Every structure is written in C-alpha cells, then in structure tokens.
Amino acid sequence: MTMTIRSLTRGWPLALCMAMPCGAAAADAAAQVPMRDPWVPPAARQAASAASTHGAALNSQVERKLRSSFDAADADHDGSLTLAEARAGGFGMVAEHFERIDTRRSGRVSFEDVKRYLRGRGATTL
After folding, report:
1. 20 to 30 Å CA-CA from 89: which of 1, 33, 44, 68?
2. Do the Cβ atoms of 109 and 101 come closer than 8 Å?
3. Domains in the chain, start-ordered, CATH in brackets?
4. Per-residue pLDDT of the chain (126 residues; tens, 9 = 90+)
C-alpha cells in the first residue's frame, strides 16, 4: 500500500479534535480552571472585592481620597499647596495643572480650588 502525504494528512483534523476539547466542552473546561498569575500572592488571590459604591456614598468616597492625597502633599499643613509641595508630595495632577488651578495667581491652591478645577473639567463625583 502506497502512502501519500494526502492520505497521511486526511484524518488529522478529526484526530486533533478528538485529542483536544472542542466547542462547548473546551469552554466548560476553561471555566472550571481559573487562570492565576503566579506572581500574585495566594492571600491576594482570595481577597474579596469591595462592594460597589453609588450616589452620595461614591461622591463622599472620591472626595475623601482626593482630600487624603491633598493633605499628604501639604507639607506645611496650612491647607493649601504650592507647586513645589504638589511635586514633592507626588500629587502630579495638581503639579501638571497648577497654573490653571491657581486662578488667583497667588502661588497656592486650596482644596476647593482643586475641586473647582476638576468640576470645570467635567468631574461629576465631587
């Protein structure tokens, strides 16, 4: 019996499909085994996701986080930031837009100035 390449390769799609899960079976197998990043510690993999926040609670949460960043950058704790404080404190958004936020040209921006700027740029949760 003479074997040609055509006769050898004729049945390979069927053999391949039988060896590997196809279609719905493959999807079910993939759904059962979650993909895991080997660099993520096991404790972090099991961490529960935070409940989603809406409405007034979301506004409050956003403002608290923004205030926390602002206060952390305010090195002299006077309630306002200079450009140097914003840069040194890692508050890059304020540092990058300082001249636009400082509408009074005082060299300092307050938390209210930052919120006003963000609202003017389309922020809806402040």
Report:
1. 44
2. yes
3. 56-120 (1.10.238.10)
4. 555 555 555 555 555 555 555 555 555 555 566 667 777 777 777 765 666 778 889 999 999 999 999 999 999 999 999 999 999 999 999 999 999 999 999 999 999 999 999 999 998 887
What 3-state class would DSSP assign to 114? Answer: helix
CA angle, 73 as apex, 125 and 64 as ends, to 5°? 30
pTM over 0.70: no
Which position has the token pair 């079910």? 28
Contact present, 99 and 86 (Cβ < 8 Å): no
**Phi/psi zone of residue 48: left (φ > 0), alpha (ψ -120 to 50 degrees), beta?**
beta
Among all chains, which residue has been given the structure tokens 């996701």? 49
Q: Within its chain, how far is the Cα of 97 from the centroid?
A: 22
Contact 67, 59 (CB under 8 A): no
**How many Å apart are CA 93 and CA 84, to the nearest integer?**
13
